[in-house]
Amino acid sequence: PGSDTAHLALLGYDPYKYYTGRGPFEAAGVGIDVKPGDVAFRCNFATVEEDFKVIDRRAGRIGETKELEKVIDGLEIEGVKVIFKESGGYRAALVLRGEGLSDKVSDGDPHRVGVKVPEIKPLENSLEAKRTANILNKLLEIAHKRLNNHPINQDRRRKGLPPGNIILPRGGGVVPNIEPFYERYKLRGACIAGTGLIKGIAKLLGLDFIPVEGATGTPSTNYIGKAKAAVEGIKDYDFIMVNVKGADEASHDGDYETKVKVLENIDKMMKYILDHVDREEVYIVVTGDHSSPVEIRDHSADPVPIVIWGKSVRTDEVDRFDEFSTYKGGLSWIRGKYIMPILLDLINRSEKYGA
Question: Which residue in 41, 109, 246, 317 has its CB near the most CB atoms, within 10 A?
Answer without folding.
Answer: 41
